[in-house]
Design goal:
Blueprint: E1 3-8, H1 12-15, H2 24-40, E2 45-50, H3 61-66, E3 92-95, H4 105-113, E4 117-123, H5 125-138, E5 142-151, H6 155-166, E6 171-173, H7 175-182, H8 191-194, E7 213-218, E8 221-230, H9 234-253, H10 256-270, H11 274-285, H12 289-307, E9 315-317, E10 322-328, E11 331-336, H13 343-354, E12 358-363, H14 368-380, E13 388-390, H15 395-403, E14 409-413, H16 416-429, E15 433-436, E16 441-445, H17 451-463, E17 473-479, H18 483-495, E18 498-500, H19 515-528, E19 533-535, E20 540-542, H20 547-550, E21 557-560, H21 567-570, E22 577-583, H22 586-594, E23 598-599, E24 601-605, H23 609-618, E25 623-626, E26 642-643, E27 646-647, H24 655-660, E28 661-667
Parallel strand pairs: 1-2, 1-4, 2-3, 4-5, 5-6, 11-12, 11-14, 12-13, 14-15, 16-17, 16-24, 17-22, 18-20, 21-22, 24-25
Antiparallel strand pairs: 7-8, 9-10, 10-28, 15-27, 19-21, 23-26
């Protein structure tokens, strides 16, 4: 395969945009990894830079109208980061418009190199990257986009662009998969599965033999392949959606009490499975047994809590001649994550079913085995065939499910990129969306509180299950007067947590979900070490010598960083990392708490009723906690985030009816 790499507009002026997503440091790191890998493979590199001059003004018209001068030749903003600088012999193509193909120079270079495939990374996905990809496609090149090495300052537009380009045969691959492709190993091909050792590679779902498969590796032992999961395509998704659509009328007619009885029976079937489910959670996603048991018990509690709403009044009088009633949505798509592969789906599945909807469920690949087991139990509980269909796969499968014409609503839990992808699909089809999109959760620790108790709560909230909870404590904002004392308590509390084998009852901090996640967290912490102090508190290790070398383990880390704009402060790490910030006064503490894009959970540790009241009235988050960890939630309480943490109504309790039914007014 003759390929070339295009690095588009990875310049400081573009990378410095405050709304850039993903964050600049992460994009730079991935682009640098791609660049180094291509150099090692002797893949030709072409650098594309936007270059304008004040002496020969060739800016685009909209820049002129707005008075924008960026990427001016010779300025610091025109340059690229040190890790992305061209080497001698690597050409640089300059442009003043969107497309790098505008004057023919780039095409001449690519033709001279004999390039057939053009790999593209850079910014912005919705603008110059898109133009480069489409123009390369028009000229007969095969474009491949390095999905985790592109960014945009308009993330929703970027999500639309990704969907648009994928529908036109442009491949989006992670950097590691791009390098594998360039090296002659395409990770997406079905042959990958057949080449694996026979032990532990049995597919967990039977589909057409020609479907590609993804293999799932044990988080605690990267040499152990657990199973493979098929990547269902348009045909399989359409079949599942049609089955749900056919089953929906009969399910709706069954009545709320009958549907609630099935949920109760499912709870009865799940309860004795608690230990087996906890062990499967430990194996499949690296969740320590104690947390796995909690998740299994929470799933049972969620089912029973939802079933108690079977008597909800779904009809009522409004006026002398008018009434209102709540009707099922129809077919609901559920897109669920790997970190709580049992409880999060149950929290969506149970109310969807109670209120008379059929379901098409696309679980995250690592949660696929548990998804299939849950549906098996649901059918044992009496749920008719077709009411719930599971389609396994990757991001592309999820997009197909959400876009299917038989789907009437979407409920999703995922990251920011998944949220934007869902928003653009649902907006185009004008169907309801409920999305929980993570949290960069802060705890304010004030000097009038119980510092030892606060430290214990923050430590468990930050590092339990290796920080892989949407409610995990990501940041601690500490009164400067008690900062040293709190830090000492915190290190002692972390020292009491056990790190290691998730199948050991004593373990609280297990592995991350995969080696890629571990490496991402390690790279984020390494970048943060240049802006602040990184502490790695001593912990007790379970599982014997070398356990951390066998799997996707990252040690607990405290990052002391007072720069409120730094990536480590602003972005959700989703790993065993706690950011410590110092606040000189109460007003600064509130500002730091609010000054991130997420708004899922916030906590306050203080004995002052005045401060508690101010916290409750001024902090912008969907869940507030007083003298409690950010982690954990009641099965009947609303669960939803503000700002970038959520779209649509919250989950659970009375909020379920708000989403899983739609209102009709009836006049007689």
């Amino acid at each position: 395969m003759n390929a070339a790499l295009l690095l588009v507009d990875l310049q400081h002026d573009f990378l410095g945009a405050p709304s850039l997503e993903p964050a600049a440091d992460a994009v730079i790191a991935q682009a640098a990894s791609l660049l180094a890998g291509c150099r090692a493979l002797a893949v030709p590199i072409v650098h594309v830079w936007t270059t304008v001059s004040r002496t020969d003004d060739r800016r685009m018209a909209h820049w002129r109208r707005s008075g924008k001068w960026i990427c001016v030749d010779g300025t610091a903003g025109h340059a690229v980061p040190e890790a992305l600088r061209p080497l001698d012999g690597e050409p640089v193509v300059h442009k003043a418009v969107f497309s790098p193909f505008c004057d023919g120079e780039l095409e001449r270079i690519l033709r001279s190199l004999g390039a057939e495939v053009v790999v593209v990374a850079g910014v912005h996905l919705h603008a110059c990257v898109r133009a480069a990809v489409l123009d390369a496609y028009q000229r007969g090149f095969e474009p491949v986009v390095a999905e985790d090495a592109v960014a945009s300052d308009d993330p929703l537009h970027a999500a639309v662009t990704l969907a648009y380009l994928e529908q036109r045969a442009v491949r989006f691959l992670l950097v590691r998969d791009v390098l594998s492709l360039l090296a002659g190993h395409d990770r997406k091909r079905p042959a990958e599965v057949s080449s694996l050792p026979a032990l532990g590679t049995e597919p967990i779902a039977r589909c057409a033999d020609d479907l590609p498969h993804l293999r799932h590796v044990a988080p605690a032992d990267s040499a152990r392949v657990l199973w493979s999961v098929p990547v269902c395509g348009a045909k399989e998704v359409a079949q599942a959606a049609e089955a749900a659509h056919r089953a929906s009328a009969g399910w709706r007619a069954a009545g709320a009490s009958s549907r609630a009885a099935i949920l109760e029976r499912l709870a009865e079937l799940l309860e004795p499975e608690t230990e087996a489910l906890a062990r499967q959670l430990a194996s499949d996603v690296g969740k320590p047994l104690a947390y796995g048991r909690e998740e299994a018990a929470r799933s049972v509690a969620l089912l029973r809590a939802v079933a108690r709403h079977a008597d909800d009044q779904l009809e009522g009088r409004c006026g002398p001649t008018s009434a209102r009633r709540q009707q099922p949505l129809g077919v609901v798509a559920l897109i669920t994550p790997w970190n709580n592969p049992l409880a999060i789906p149950v929290g969506k599945l149970a109310p969807a079913l109670l209120y008379g909807n059929a379901v098409v469920w696309k679980p995250s690949p690592p949660g696929s085995a548990l998804a299939l087991r849950l549906v098996e139990l649901l059918e044992q509980a009496g749920c008719p065939p077709g009411v719930v269909s599971v389609v396994c796969g990757d991001r592309s499968t999820g997009a197909l499910v959400m876009a299917n014409e038989s789907v009437d609503a979407v409920a999703l839990t995922g990251n920011s990129a998944a949220g934007y992808a869902a928003q653009q699909i649902c907006a185009r089809r004008r169907v309801p969306l409920q999305a929980e999109l993570g949290g960069n959760n802060a705890a304010i620790v004030w000097s009038d509180g119980d510092l030892a108790a606060a430290a214990s709560s923050v430590a468990e909230g930050a590092f339990g299950f290796a920080g892989q909870r949407c409610t995990a404590n990501r940041r601690a904002i500490v009164d400067a007067r008690c900062y040293p004392s709190f830090l000492a308590h915190l290190e002692a509390a972390i020292g009491r947590l056990v790190w290691g084998d998730p199948e050991d009852d004593a373990t609280a901090i297990g592995p991350l979900i995969c080696i890629g996640a571990r490496d991402r967290v390690a790279a984020t912490v390494a970048r943060a070490s240049r802006a602040g102090r990184v502490l790695t508190p001593r912990v007790t290790v379970s599982g014997g010598d070398g356990v951390a070398d066998r799997g996707a383990y990252h040690p607990p880390a405290i990052v002391c960083c007072d720069d409120p704009r730094h990536e480590i402060v602003q972005e959700e790490t989703f790993g065993p990392v706690l950011v410590l910030q110092s606040a000189s006064d109460w007003d600064q503490a509130l500002r730091l708490c609010n000054d991130v894009k997420h708004g899922l959970v916030a906590a306050l540790f203080s004995a002052s009723e005045t401060r508690q009241h101010q916290f409750m009235t001024q902090v912008r988050a969907g869940i507030l906690k007083i003298n409690r960890s950010t982690a954990g939630a009641d099965v009947e309480a609303p669960f939803g985030g503000w700002k970038a943490s959520g779209v649509g109504p919250p989950e659970h309790g009375a909020s379920n009816r708000e989403f899983y039914t739609r209102t009709q007014a009836v006049y007689r």
